[in-house]
Every structure is written in structure tokens, then in C-alpha cells.
Amino acid sequence: MIARYPIEKSPLYRAGPNKLASLLGFKSGKALKAFVGDCEKSYACFQHDGRGIEHPLRKLQVAHKRLSTLLVRIEVPDYLQSGVKGRSYIGNARRHAHNAGKRAFTMDIQKFFQSASYKYVWKCFAKQFELDLDVASILTRLVVIRGHIPTGSSVSTILSFYAYRVMFDRINDCCESGGVTFSCYVDDITCSGDGATRRLAGEVKRIVRSYGLTPHPSKTKYYQPSAPKMITGAAVTKKGLRLPNKRRKAIHEDFKSLLGREVSENVEVMKNRLRGRLGEASLFEDRFKKPLKSPVLRQGSSQ
């Protein structure tokens, strides 16, 4: 596990222009300032699965990776389940397992990275990291494109948390005061407990909107105490975490195709996909470990 430290111990905290430049791979503060003046040209912008991707290139990519490495070493609250090593979408669901028999609701922030504005990124550097205003501006220009956090950068996930940490802290305080467990996984918000009511969901939405963000209008889901809760791709039940039926069916269909020789694609490609699905499933339920040793997955593609 990575040893984490308070934000005041971060090399970024109160860094001057030359120190910041050195941390990010530039020769001097002057060189860094010159680079950010035109760094928006250092992105590859393209569409993937209907989503716009803004991927940093070359020196900008290196700088983003270095910044990400520095940010993930800082202590973060327990409610954050993304962007740092050792936390994941499964851990996000597991955080609510003790409330399997209670109410819950989930909601998404619509187009979070595209809505994460220059203003809040700058504020996080100026206030949380206590950078001089001009240094905060330089660093902000290095990590935003067209006024928002890029959608395809290695730093985007952890940076989006710091940009809106004050908002997430407010939501957490609101939940804690009512005995409700809160977690966030990038743009997914989950609240569970007896107090996870529609009234609380309305308050969470008001907080989100007050920071210029928009809760996705069709992606707020409410769960009654007796119902399984779908939380970041895991089914939280009274018997523990379970693999969602959709992924369970996909495993069954892959095995059926391999056993029946009804494979319309490369056999080894399908086997590798099935191994991946079983490996993921075994994180939810131990019984999926045994099929990983199936002779079907050990056979060569020529058999």
C-alpha cells in the first residue's frame, strides 16, 4: 500500500514556480509558463463509443502523470472510492454492505469532467494547496482544456475530486448528520441507511447544483430496504455482494458457446474475455474461482 500523508506534507503544497516546474518535468518556472501558453495543442481529441476524448500527448502527458502521482499520495476521506490505489468500484459497493437491509439511493453527475470548470480547479490549487495566485493559474492552465478537466487524462479522476472536494465534504456532512453512509466513485454518488430518503436526495441535488453541476435527470435510483441495491456495478444484498444477473448471463453464454463450438470469433479471444469475466466475478463470489480452472479454458484453440 502507498504511504499517504496530509496535504500539508505534499511537495505541491505552497510550491513556488520553479519547484512546481521541477516536480512536473520542466527546467524552470519560466519554461513551464511558456509551455502552458499553448498547451491546448498538446491533446489528441477524438470520439470513442459516442464520447468525446481529450487525451494529452508527449510532454503534457508526462506532466499530468507526475501530477497524478503526487495527488494520489495525499490522504483522502474514507468516502472517496476512486482515483487512489486500493480503492475501486467493488470497494465502493462494499462500503454500503452493512446497510443492505436499509434504504439507499444512487445518482450520477452529468458530464462531470466536461462540467468541472477552470474556476473550481483553480480554487483547489489556490485554497487547498495554498499556491500563489499566479502559480495556481499556471497549474490550472496545464490541466484544463477549453475551460474544463480533460476526459482522457490520467490526472482527471483524482483532480475532479480535489476540484469539488468542498462539495463532496458538504454532502458527507449532510449524510453523517442523519446517520447515512455516503460514498463517491468519480461521478457516482451513493447514500445508504434509514435516512437515505427522497428528501435527503433532494438536498444532495441542491448541493450539487450549487457548484454549477447537474445531477443526471434520469439516473437517480431509490432502493427500498428489502431490495438488492445496484451500486457501481455490484448487487448489494443481505447475503453480501453478488454479481449482477447481466454479467452472470454473459459468463453462461460464453461457456455455452465454447462447449457447443458455436464460436463466431477467435476462440482464444473469447477465452481471454471469459477469464477476465470470471476473474472479476470471483471478487464478488468465491464460487467463480473454480470455473477459472475449467478444462475448456485450458484447451488450445486447435482442439
From TrEMBL:
UniProt entry keywords in alphabetical sequence: Antiviral defense, Magnesium, Metal-binding, Nucleotidyltransferase, RNA-directed DNA polymerase, Transferase
Keyword Transferase: yes
An example molecular function term from Gene Ontology annotations: RNA-directed DNA polymerase activity
Keyword Cell division carried by entry: no
InterPro entries in UniProt: DNA/RNA_pol_sf, Reverse_transcriptase_msDNA, RT_dom
Reverse transcriptase domain segment(s): 65-223
Domain of life where this protein originates: Bacteria
Name of one Pfam family that matches: RVT_1
Family per similarity comment: Belongs to the bacterial reverse transcriptase family.
Protein name (Swiss-Prot/TrEMBL): Reverse transcriptase family protein
The organism's taxonomic lineage, starting at the top: Bacteria, Pseudomonadati, Verrucomicrobiota, Verrucomicrobiia, Verrucomicrobiales
